[in-house]
Amino acid sequence: PMVKDVINALPVLSRVKGAKLVTIMGGSHTGFSDSAKYLRWFENPDSIGCAQVLKALDIDEEEPWYTLLGSQEQGVIYETPAPLCTMQPLPVAMNPLRQHMITKVAILSFFQSHFADTAEEKKYYSEFLSKIMAKELPEVIYQESAM
């Protein structure tokens, strides 16, 4: 992956009360984009993104790149700089079409668990997101903040 989720996403669970994290095993950063459907025959569509990022930024491995994203005042956390595009070759990723489908199901379930019209619907979507989705989709791992 471009940035490992253990560095990028997992810390949210220990920093944000009530945080929920859906991990799609074998997913790619590029796979979250609808346009990734055109890259479904690539072993890992992030290979294109990594090549472009590394070429455009001309990153020195010793020099931190995360300052290019913004300041700490803007919410960028500097304490653990994530290595960018250092895993070569990239692992085989899932088909972006499947990843996009899983993403849409997770997002719909999350929003409906908060904004559905009735308490019954909210409960249904919350239970689907937190318990059922990972049982039905083996690529999915659901975690909640212990805070």
Could you give the order of strands across the largest sheet?
1-2
**Total DSSP helices:** 5
**Sheet with the most strands?**
2 strands, antiparallel
Radius of gyration computed on alpha carbons: 17 Å
Extended strand count: 2
Amino- and carboxy-terminal Cα gap:
28 Å
Number of domains: 1
Order of helices and strands: HHEHHHE
The mean pLDDT is 86
Classify the helix fraction into a percent range.
25-40%
Strand content: 5-15%
Structural class: mainly alpha
Query: What best-fitting shape do the alpha-carbon axes yield?
Result: globular
**Which ranges are low-confidence, i.e. pLDDT below 50, for 5 or more consecutive residues?**
none
Describe the structure.
With 147 residues, the protein is mostly helical. The protein has one domain (5-144). Helices cover 39% and strands 7% of the residues. The protein is built from five helices and two strands. It has helices spanning 5-8, 12-15, 46-57, 96-115, 119-136; strands spanning 20-24, 140-144. A two-stranded antiparallel ribbon has the order 1-2. Helix 4 (96-115) runs antiparallel to helix 5. It is globular and about 50 Å long. The chain starts with a helix and ends with a strand. The model has no long low-confidence stretch (mean pLDDT 86).
Overview features:
mainly alpha; 147 residues; 7% strand; single chain; globular
